[in-house]
Amino acid sequence: MSDPTPQAVQDLSQLDEQTRTELEAAAFRRLLKHLDDNKDVQNIDLMILADFCRNCLSKWLMAAGEERGVSFDYDAAREHVYGMPYSEWKTHHQAKATPEQLAALEARQQGKKD
């Protein structure tokens, strides 16, 4: 059996909902793998640069579940995102925030208020 011919589209909205959902899910899984492969990137760095972190992804995952009638708790969502229990991740991979990081986060949060 041969592989199907790739579908060329100019706009992702041209894709059927199932295909688009599968692509978005694959991209999300790749993001989680990328974060897992780069545990040295701290949540505070993500918050400073992108205004989201692994915990945000966990909350978004929970919200997506709730929108679809699927319920799971925050710890289960974080374990999925972190690839291990959050307490274990913190012990092995979370560094204490530096004064510079805290100042940068505070500046970002102040900038959002202005």
UniProtKB/TrEMBL annotation:
Region Disordered, annotated ranges: 90-114
Bilayer-spanning residue ranges: none
SMc04008-like domain mapped to chain residues: 41-106
Superkingdom to which the source organism belongs: Bacteria
Protein name: DUF1244 domain-containing protein
Natural source organism: Cobetia amphilecti
